[in-house]
Amino acid sequence: MEAGEDFGPWLARQLKLADMTQTELALAVDVTRAAVSAWITGRATPRPEAIERIARALKTDLVTVHTRTTDTQAGLPVVWYHRRGHADGGRELGNAAAFAFDADVSVLARETCQNSLDERITANGQPVRVRYTLHELTGEKLARFREAIQWDDLYPHYEVVREQKQKVGRVVDAGLRDMYERDRLVLLRVDDYNAAGLTGDDYEDGRFAAVVRRQLDSLKSGSTAGGSYGLGKATLWATSRLGLVLINSTLSEPHEGRTERRLVGRLDLPWRRVNDEAWAGPAWLGRPDPDSPGAEVARSWWADEETVDSLHLTRESSEPGTSFLIVGAHDVASLADDTAAPDGDEGEDDDSIQRMHHRLVRALGTNFWAAMTGGGDRLPLLEASVRTLRNGAVVIPEERVDPAVAQPSRTRALKAFLDGTTVERLTETGQVAAVTVPLNLPTQGGGRFSLGEHRAVLLVTDADDADGKLNRIVTMRGNRMTVRDTVVPGLSPANPFQAVLLAGTAAGPQAPFAAEAEEFLRAAEPPEHNRWGQTEELTLTYSPSAYRRINGLTRETNAAIKSLVVRPRQGTKQGGGRLAPKLTIGSGRKKPRLSAVSMPVLEELDAQVVEGGAWQVIGEIRIPPGGHEWRLVPVAKFDVRSGPRPAIEWAEVVGVDNCQMVDGTLRFSDGARSATFRGVTDPATHAVRTSLSGLVVELRTGEGESS
Q1: Which of 246, 353, 373, 445 is 20 to 30 A off residue 135, Cα-Cα?
Q2: In this structure, are residues 381 and 128 in contact, taking their beta carbons and an 8 Å threshold?
Q3: How far apart are CA 679 and CA 97, in angstroms?
Q4: Cβ(371)–Cβ(481) under 8 Å?
Q5: Is the pLDDT confidence value at 222 over 60?
Q6: Tell me, what's the pLDDT at 193?
Q7: From residue 92, how far is each of 168, 269, 272 by CA, in Å?
C-alpha cells in the first residue's frame, strides 16, 4: 500500500480546502483547540475515536483519513480557472513560444525527449525511459473523457476562439470538426521514468512552476542540459489542436509530504470574450487555492486513482517522472510526408495514428540513437518506445526504438568508442577510426585570450546500406542528442562513410576542458538545437567573434575526415562527391589593388534537398582584409564525370550574414571577416533528378564572366 502523508500536514491542507478553522474542527470533534494544534504540528496524534469524528467533520470516510494518500472530497472541487483579461485592455492572441515550432510530432519527440534526458536521475546510473502512447478515442470512450475534463465548461471558450481570424482560431476549428464530424479525438501521452518529476511549489521557483506556470523559464538540472531557452515545453501545447495538456507527475522529492499523482491541467488559448467577460488566455485545471483572494487561482491537486484513470493518466509504476497528455494531438508535417507506412496498416490516412506512430519512431531514432547506445561499463542514457491504441485496444504494439536499426554505422562507431575498440586507421570493413580534433576555447567576457584547447573525438566508420545519406557527419555534446547532421564537402574520390563528432563531456572524462567546452557549445546552440554557430548568448557571454572557434573546429574535423576516407587519385580525374565546393576566380580583368592573397575563400558548404526537389545550399565565406571589395557570383552546376558541367539556375540567392545580393553579385559588408549566403536552385532547370545527382558550387567574379 502507498505510504500516506504525515497526519499533521495532511490535516492542515484539508482544513484549508474545507475553509475550516482549527477552532471549528475542535468544536466538531469535541476537543480543545490546543489538541488540534498539536495534531497539526506533529506533537500528538488523535485517538481512534477522535479520527472517526474528524472523518465526519471533513465529510469523508475512515480509509481516507487513515491512508492519507489523497485529499478529502469535502473541500473545494477541481475546476477550470481562467485568467481574467488584463485591466489595461492588453491582449495576447496566442502563446508566442508555441509559434517557434511547427505542429510536428518529430519536433515534439526531439524537444520532449531532450527534456527527459535533461531531468534524468543520474545517481543510480540507469537510463531515463520515455514512452509515447498514441490513443484514439471514439464513441462512448470519447464521451466519458470529455466528461472527465469538464468539457461543457470549456466548450463556450472554444466556440468563441474558433471564430477568430488568427491561426489559433483555424487550428481550434479543425480540432472541433475532427471531434464532432469524425467522432474522434487523438491523445498523445509522453511518459518518462527515472526522471526528476515536476518538483517544487506551485508558484515559487522550481520545476513545476517553470513548466506549468511560466513561459521562457528554463530550469535545468545540469550543465549538459540540451535546453537553455525555455521554449521546448511549448511544443506540447503546439501539438494540441485544442491547446490543452493534462499532467500527472510522480516526484523525486516530496511536496506537501506526497510524491504520487500530482495532477494539473493547462489550457493555452488567445484572448477572448465569453459571456461578456474578457479572459486573458491561459487556464488551469486544479483545486481553487484557498490562500488566494476569493479562491480565484487553481493549483495542482493530489488525485485518487479513479480520477487519474478517467483522465488517461495512470502511470505504470511509482518510479519518479512525469506524464504529459496532449489532447487533440495532430501532426501537420505528416500531411506532406510521402513515405508510405509499412504494409498491413489498416485504414491509414494522412493524419492517422499509424502514420504519427511511424514518424515518432523515425524521429527518435534519428535524433537520439547515440543516447540509446551503451558500451563498456556505460549504460545507455535513454530508452524510448512508441505504442498506438484505439479505445484501449492495441493498434500497433509497443515498439522500442533500436539505435542499431535506426543508425547502424553510427551506433557501431559510438559503441566502439565506449568499448575502447577503435583504431587509428581504417584497414578493414567494420572498423572504427578515432582521432581527436582541437577546439580552441575563448575566455568569457571577451578579449583575444584562450582558455585552453579542448580535444573533441572524431569517429569514422564505413557506411551501411541502412544508413540513408552517405558521407555525413553528426555532431553532439554531453546529452548525446544530434545537434547537426551535414555532408562533408570536397570529398572526391572517397570510400562511403559515416562520421560522429563527440564534443564537450561526450568526448569522455579524459578530454581536457570538457566541462568548459560543454558550456561554450551550449551557448552556441539556437532554440532549435540544430547547429553550433553565432548566437546572441554566445556573443554576450564570450565575444562577437567567438563563433570563429567553431568554424575552426569544423575545418579541423573536415580535414581529419578527408585524411581517413579519401582514396588516392588514379588515372583520370574522377567526378566530385555529392557536394564539391570550389572557388573559381574569373579570367577576365581583375579589380586593381586586389591580389590573390586578398581573395575571399569559400570555407564551408552545406546542402540538402528541400521540398519540390530543389537543392538548398548554405555557404560560408572567409573574407581577408580588403576582400570585402570583391564582387562574387555563386554558380550551381551538376557534377558529371566528363565533359562540361550543366549549369543550374537559381530560384533564389540571398545574403544571410554580412553580405547581400546587389545586381546579381554578392556584396560584402565593410570590415566583415566572414559572410554567409543561401541559395535555392530552380528544379525546372535540373537536367537530372536531384536524388540521382551531385552538385558543384563555384564562386566567380562578377566581372569578365557570365554566371
Answers
A1: 373
A2: yes
A3: 29
A4: yes
A5: no
A6: 97
A7: 11, 9, 9
pTM over 0.85: no
What is the Cβ-side half-sphere exposure of residue 157, based on CA atoms within 13 angstroms?
Answer: 27
CA–CA gap between residue 539 and residue 536 (Å, rounded) = 5
pLDDT tens digits, 563-600: 888 755 443 333 333 444 433 333 333 444 444 446 78
The 8-class DSSP code of residue 642 comes to S
Cell numbers for 495: 570510400
What is the per-residue pLDDT for 267?
94
Q: What is the per-residue pLDDT across 392-430, written as a single tens digit (0 to 9) for each?
A: 999 999 999 999 999 999 999 999 999 999 999 888 888
**Do residues 160 and 274 touch, judged by C-beta distance below 8 A?**
yes
Cβ pair 142, 183 in contact under 8 A: yes
pLDDT tens per residue across span 101-160 = 555 788 889 889 989 998 999 999 899 999 999 999 999 999 999 999 999 999 999 999
Say if residues 454 and 503 touch (Cβ distance below 8 Å).
yes
How far, in Å, CA of 416 to CA of 424, rounded?
A: 12
Alpha-carbon span 279 to 269, nearest angstrom: 9
Is the previous residue joined to 493 through a cis bond, with omega within 30 degrees of 0? yes
Q: Contact 71/5 with Cβ under 8 angstroms? A: no
| 3-state SS class at 84 | strand
pLDDT at 74: 56
Q: How far apart are CA 123 and CA 158, in angstroms?
A: 45
Q: Rounded CA gap, 542 and 522, in Å?
A: 12
pLDDT tens-digit map of 281-301:
899 999 888 777 655 788 898
Do residues 437 and 399 touch, judged by C-beta distance below 8 A? Answer: no
φ/ψ of 279, rounded to 5, equals -120, 135
Distance CA 701, CA 439 (A): 33
Contacts of 648 (CB under 8 A, 6+ apart): 615, 636, 637, 638, 681, 682, 685, 686, 695
- Residue 517 in contact with residue 454, Cβ under 8 Å? yes
Q: How far is CA 456 from CA 142, 369, 557, in A?
A: 52, 19, 9
| Average of per-residue pLDDT across 316-344 | 74
**Residue 338 vs residues 110, 165, 349, 466: alpha-carbon distances, Å:** 21, 30, 11, 19
Q: What is the mean pLDDT of residues 352-377?
A: 93
End-to-end CA distance of the chain: 77
In this predicted structure, what is the pLDDT of residue 707?
Answer: 30
Mean pLDDT of the chain: 82
Q: Which residues of 475-504 are buried (b: 16+ CB within 10 A; e: fewer)?
A: bbbbbbbbbbbbbbbbbbebbebbbbbbbb
Which residue type is seen at 568? P
Judged on CB neighbours under 10 Å (0-12, 13-18, 19+), 651 is middle
Torsion angle in degrees (nearest 10) through CA of 98, 104, 105, 108? -30
Q: CA-CA distance, 19 to 15, in Å (whole number)?
A: 6
Q: Return d(Cα 313, Cα 247) in angstroms, integer.
A: 8
| Cβ atoms of residues 189 and 112 within 8 Å | no
Report the alpha-carbon distance of residue 190 to residue 128 in Å, rounded: 13
Instruction: Judge whether 112 and 232 are in contact, CB under 8 Å.
Output: yes
Q: How far apart are CA 297 and CA 312, in angstroms?
A: 25
The DSSP secondary structure of 90-144, one letter per residue, reads ----S-GGGGGS-S-HHHHHHHHHHHHHHTB--TT-PPEEEEEEEEEE-HHHHHH
Distance CA 436, CA 325 (A): 43
Q: Beta-carbon neighbour count of residue 32 at 10 Å?
A: 12
| Average pLDDT score over residue span 450-467 | 88
